[in-house]
Design a protein that fits this description.
7-stranded mixed sheet; transaminase activity; Aminotransferase; aminotransferase; Aspartate Aminotransferase, domain 1; 3-stranded antiparallel sheet; binds pyridoxal-5'-phosphate; pyridoxal phosphate binding
């Protein structure tokens, strides 16, 4: 395939997709591969989108997004973290968190740069890094509760390191970082000239303590890109509304990349997002209450099955260690779907350091979780690789 970009031919379909695509092949499959809320979006979000269409709001907006929406994002961040990002100059609306990641990486990465990735982590970063001809350097978090330490991060920095990408609450582990852990990382990184990219798309989905952010640490603000969005928090993955927060000087460049990418986010979706941010807090809390109940049940059952697992504090995933049964998580997940019609994501999808784990999502109904646990327990009772 000589005509195709050499970096594209090396990319694979993500493990999440591979297994969610298999669900349709079975009559009675339970799908715990979901990366999105099972709740219906609120009427005030849908009504705002529909109203925008009826009122002919189908023209381009400002490249950065409607100012009213950027102001709503700014107010939301201030309400949650007490930090102000300027709506005019420091906020850019993107097509989901995905475009936010792509825009930021394309703004800063040169071929042969190195990007540090604490792993296991979301599988959407490494392909973009590869497409830019750059290299990913893993920072192993498996021995430190899935949270990178400042020592491990600084040990991985070379003169080629351009950036580090944090994601917390973390997909796939459900672990999040405490204020003190973030402070220690911020202190270490403020001494360096590398960029910090922090993907906080699950920041509204936290269960035991308030979310904290690198945004709270002034010393890193000039090297910080924050990626986030409304997909997960407001159950609107299909609306494609995300954003980047960055200092003005960096944001000008990200905006240029974004405008050549997509010009702006679909206008009716921007109106829906304004309504979500202005009215949605109560619903976020309600959804989180349901996730807590599901998380607690799933965690207790996994512990009962003897699987080592960390109780998730955020996102809607849990990441049990299945290494006592198998060190081939793809084989394990294949056998599980074939024998019990239960779809999960192999840990190896989240880097080689995710091998020996599987990811289960609890963004589905309680009935599905109960049935899934029964099936997993039965499977483990006789499973031999
Ligand atoms: C950590 C993380 N970042 C970004 C995304 C992409 O979000 P969006 O649907 O808003 O593009 C996902 C989706 O699963 C995710 O898990």
């Amino acid at each position: 395939m000589k005509l195709i970009n050499k970096f594209v031919t090396g990319l694979e379909v993500p493990g999440t997709r591979q297994f969610s695509n298999k669900v349709a092949l079975y009559d009675n499959c339970i799908d715990l591969t979901l990366g999105q809320s099972g709740f219906a979006p609120a009427d005030y979000i849908k009504d705002a989108m529909i109203r925008a269409i009826s009122e002919d709001q189908l023209r381009y907006t400002h490249n950065k997004g409607l100012l009213e929406l950027r102001q709503a994002v700014s107010d939301d961040i201030y309400r949650r973290l007490g930090v102000r990002y300027d709506a005019e100059t420091e906020i850019l609306m993107t097509n989901g968190g995905s475009e936010a990641i792509d825009d930021v990486l394309r703004t800063i990465i040169n071929p042969d740069d190195e990007v540090l990735l604490p792993v296991p982590t979301y599988l959407g970063y490494e392909p973009v890094i590869k497409l830019l001809g750059a290299k990913t350097v893993y920072v192993d978090t498996t021995q430190t509760g899935f949270v990178p330490t400042p020592e491990a991060v600084t040990a991985a920095i070379t003169d080629k390191t351009k950036a580090i990408i944090f994601n917390y609450p973390t997909n796939p582990t459900g672990v999040t970082y405490t204020y003190d852990q973030i402070q220690a990382l911020a202190d270490a990184l403020s001494e360096t000239s590398i960029f910090i990219i922090t993907d906080e798309i699950y920041s509204e989905n936290v269960y035991d303590a308030p979310h904290h952010s690198f945004m709270e640490f002034k010393d890193v603000r000039n090297q910080l890109f924050v990626v986030s969005g409304l997909s997960k928090s407001h159950a609107i993955t299909g609306a494609r509304v995300g954003y980047v927060l960055a200092p003005e000087a960096l944001m000008e460049h990200v905006t240029t990349v974004h405008l050549y990418n997509s010009i702006c986010v679909a206008t009716p979706m921007q109106y829906g997002a304004i309504s979500a941010l202005n009215h949605g807090q109560e619903d976020v809390t309600k959804m989180n209450d349901a996730y807590i109940e599901r998380r607690n049940y799933l965690y207790d059952r996994l512990i009962g099955m003897g699987l080592p697992v960390i109780k998730p504090q955020g996102a809607f995933y849990i990441f049990p260690d299945i290494s006592a049964y198998s060190n081939d998580s793809f084989q394990f997940a294949n056998d599980l779907i074939e024998q019990e019609q239960l779809a999960v994501v192999p840990g190896k999808s989240f880097s080689d350091l995710g091998e020996g784990y599987i990811r289960l999502s609890f963004a589905c109904t309680m009935e599905e979780i109960i049935e899934a646990c029964d099936r997993l327990e039965r499977f483990l009772n006789h499973y031999q690789q």
